């Protein structure tokens, strides 16, 4: 019997092919075990995923199209209403995103899975590692956009947990192109940090790398960034930047069989390298396949269907925790290197994924992030 899957996809200036990349990854994993005529996709564009039209579109799909499963991005400002909609209709949802904001209890119910790439946890891990490895004096650099989620808070919590001190907090203006980068570099140099934590993405990240590479900080002060700042699809020119690392739950340069298989199959199918959005779609497809191992149809109660089950993915064997959010087994310490005319994030160390429960509890009490649109959808 044909399964109807609705996919709600936002637009993104940073990932202009977000919808296509996600669908390519999703279809690539599903085609391993599901015939093409067994699934009917119903695709809806939802803008920035932040207004009531998302709820209206979703409810219409559920009522008129007999949807078996919905996959969708959603802004934090309407996420409680979005997830409650599926709870009320007792319909399954896989809510997706990169994971820059902490999941709140109000968004948890048995019908909803939250599949992310654990970005805020990566920021926390990077900050705590930075203090232990390099020293207690920390300078935090951030864009107005990237710092607007729970990323900056994760930096602060991570470094203070290890006895670190913020000696300077520097936030770029929204129109960063008008900023005097020489003055900003001088401000950073004056506080004499042991280590820099940086939260930027897309073109602004590259601009910041260029400014740092021309300063006395380059090669003398280590830099720990969020995963998106060193993303291979954004960084295509050599900045001559040194001592840059990041933590993430993935690396396309990871030499595991699962990641290399994903890279190879994706390139063979689409004649291009995968992106983080492709990876997200691929993993959602693997989650659906895991559900269908024991079920003829997609069950309503996704939480129960995946309880205690591990899913083999390019990031390792992920599992859904008590809040129904996907958790990868490891955090990867990645060195940002320019090799063979391109940047790669080479894995230098793997550490067990672990965020203290008291930290998670504290984050749940924080206000919702300043930006409503899903990170990194603009």
TrEMBL record:
Gene3D superfamilies: 3.40.50.2300. Residues 4-328 form the Leucine-binding protein domain. The keyword Cell membrane does not apply. InterPro entries: BCAA_transport, Leu-bd, Peripla_BP_I. It comes from the Bacteria. Pfam families: Peripla_BP_6. Keywords: Signal. SUPFAM superfamilies: Periplasmic binding protein-like I. The keyword Cell membrane does not apply. Belongs to the leucine-binding protein family. This is ABC transporter substrate-binding protein. It comes from Jejudonia soesokkakensis. The lineage of its organism: Bacteria, Pseudomonadati, Bacteroidota, Flavobacteriia, Flavobacteriales.
